[in-house]
Write a structure and sequence with these properties.
By secondary structure, this protein is an alpha/beta fold. Helices cover 25% and strands 38% of the residues. It is built from three helices and eight strands. The radius of gyration is 15 Å and the shape is globular.
Length: 160
């Protein structure tokens, strides 16, 4: 990771700040916005066969479970935008998924170590299949949400 100074925040802090600013802007525009700051972000590849259990798994804090569940209950997230910052092998990812009709947005924030073989394997699988999933769950494995992204190249860079 990059050292942090008073003048220049770390890439993680910059990513968090940008997520908070985006959430504030959405709320000021009348949207419901939920930010999921993942304690851990892991790439998961399909274990076998044609399964949808692959993608990025965001481990969310307990405190977000209720607000996220409420936000996704009636929303249809058909749009997503990935904002990423790469520093060495660290990928800082901010993903906005939203339902413009319901005016609901979820911001997924996490950091991924691209040097892990699973990251490269996931990028290959996602490009081959033409899509990628973001799964949000609690530390105990409780599933909170899954969103499909039809543009996996926006999430994971080529190579390591």
């Amino acid at each position: 990771m990059v050292a942090e100074t008073d003048d220049e925040p770390s890439p993680w802090r910059r990513t968090l700040r940008e997520a908070n600013e985006m959430a504030d802007d959405l709320r000021a525009d009348g949207w419901e916005a939920v930010t999921v700051r993942a304690g851990h972000l892991a790439p998961v590849t399909p274990e076998r066969g044609d399964t949808d259990r692959f993608g990025l798994v965001y481990v969310a804090p307990d405190g977000v479970a209720e607000s996220l569940s409420d936000a996704v209950a009636d929303a249809e997230f058909d749009r997503s935008t990935a904002f990423r910052r790469r520093v060495g092998t660290d990928l800082f990812l901010l993903t906005r998924v939203d339902d413009p009709d319901a005016r609901v947005a979820v911001l997924l924030v996490g950091a991924l170590d691209l040097s892990r073989p699973e990251a490269s394997d996931l990028a290959s699988v996602a490009r081959e299949r033409g899509h990628l999933y973001s799964h949000v769950e609690l530390l105990d494995g409780t599933h909170l949400a899954t969103v499909r992204h039809d543009h996996p190249e926006d999430f994971l860079p080529e190579g390591r």
